[in-house]
Write a structure and sequence with these properties.
Organism: Streptomyces shenzhenensis
CATH class of the domain at 1-114: Mainly Alpha
Distance between the termini: 57 Å
Pfam families: TPR_12
Strand content: under 5%
Largest sheet: none
Number of helices: 17
CATH architecture of the domain at 1-114: Alpha Horseshoe
Number of strands: 0
Radius of gyration: 21 Å
Helix content: over 70%
Order of helices and strands: HHHHHHHHHHHHHHHHH
CATH superfamily of the domain at 1-114: Tetratricopeptide repeat domain
Protein name: MalT-like TPR region domain-containing protein
């Protein structure tokens, strides 16, 4: 039913690149082709190669370079009158905005990308852009608002036999089920995604599916060792492909698994590693989630109660600022779990407590 996974964001002279190409290789090839196209005055080719450059920088966590690259790709595509590539550049910019925690900008750019893709008769970029909108809503905790869109995109991907997009949609739906506490259905969806990704040779999608399976195995079954083994398998892929963001989220999940297993000192070390990785790539959502895990681990290891209260209150404010509804609820659960009250409940102004 599904063919080998492809990377439609690698276009023009770069279509020979694989979905599994190392990001450093993608960046080198894209930069080389971009320079050649610019010297030749080929705006369309410059836009297409610039898109690959932007995506390589983004996935490597090089935020400033990615921002400049997608904008340059858009300008070149506009000069060439290529609406399809303009849409892809907007998709890249919207995905970067979501990664940086700028959710309103992400929705605006991804919405423009979907419209532009429709105008340019590029069904693939339209689908990717709608998928980006769905993922943005899911990350913010708007499960009711985006569940139907996830299902719609899954049906379209299955109908076209697009393995990579099918895997993405399955993983998104699985995350919604997991957050609602439906562990069995979430596990089945992650398992299906992992199987399709493996058969289609989509190593990135497979790594994310393994991370999801590890989460369920840990949360539902309490099987720490199996969960860690799944994460180790996924980590090998992340390192081979230089997937910086995926690796940081893998490390954050490893911290979750260790914490649930009562191995708080090991969890602390893993959260500290993930926190440093997220900060290096300026990814506020991952940073906040790693901080939350670290606060809980330190509390279990005997950290001063007042410091825990202050840190959780600061995290709640940060998550509200970012707009992460579900993550804000996680802070509230952590306050209950650790037996600490929010500062406002105790009548202590946050600025004093800090």
């Amino acid at each position: 039913m599904y063919g080998k996974a492809i990377a439609p964001e690698y276009q023009g002279a770069l279509t020979t690149l694989s979905v599994n190409s190392s990001l450093t290789d993608v960046l080198a090839a894209g930069t080389r082709q971009l320079r050649e196209a610019e010297r030749a005055g080929e705006h369309g080719e410059a836009a297409r190669s610039g898109l690959a450059v932007a995506e390589a920088h983004r996935r490597l966590g090089q935020i400033g370079e990615a921002d400049r690259a997608w904008k340059a790709s858009y300008r070149a595509a506009k000069t060439a009158g290529d609406k399809g590539t303009m849409a892809w550049a907007l998709w890249s910019g919207g995905t970067l905005a979501r990664q940086r925690g700028s959710f309103a900008l992400a929705r605006r750019l991804l919405g423009l990308a979907a419209d532009m893709g429709e105008q340019g008769d590029d069904v693939v970029v339209r689908g990717y852009s709608l998928a980006g909108l769905a993922e943005t809503g899911r990350i913010q905790g708007d499960y009711e608002g985006v569940a139907r869109l996830h299902e719609q995109l899954l049906a379209e991907a299955r109908r076209r036999g697009e393995a990579r997009h099918t895997v993405w949609a399955l993983e998104g739906i699985a995350q919604i089920h997991r957050q609602r506490g439906s562990y069995d259905s979430a596990y089945a969806l992650f398992e299906e995604a992992a199987g399709i990704a493996a058969r289609a040779d989509d190593r990135r999608g497979h790594a994310w599916a393994l991370r999801g399976l590890a989460d369920i195995v840990s949360a539902r079954d309490g099987d720490v060792e199996r969960a860690l083994a799944l994460l180790s398998e996924a980590e090998a892929t992340c390192r081979a492909m230089r997937l910086s963001s995926a690796l940081a989220y893998n490390h954050k999940m490893r911290g979750n698994v260790l914490y649930r297993g009562g191995r708080c000192a090991e969890a602390r070390d893993m959260y500290e590693l993930a926190l440093a990785e997220f900060r290096e790539m300026s990814e506020p959502r991952g940073e906040a989630l790693a901080r939350l895990g670290l606060v809980k681990s330190l509390a279990r290891l005997g950290r001063d109660r007042a410091e825990t209260v202050a840190e959780l209150s600061a995290l709640a404010a940060e998550l509200d600022r970012i707009g992460l509804r579900h993550a804000r609820e996680m802070v509230a659960r952590a306050q209950d779990e650790l037996g600490v009250q929010a500062q406002e409940d105790r009548g202590v102004p946050a600025e004093v407590a800090r």
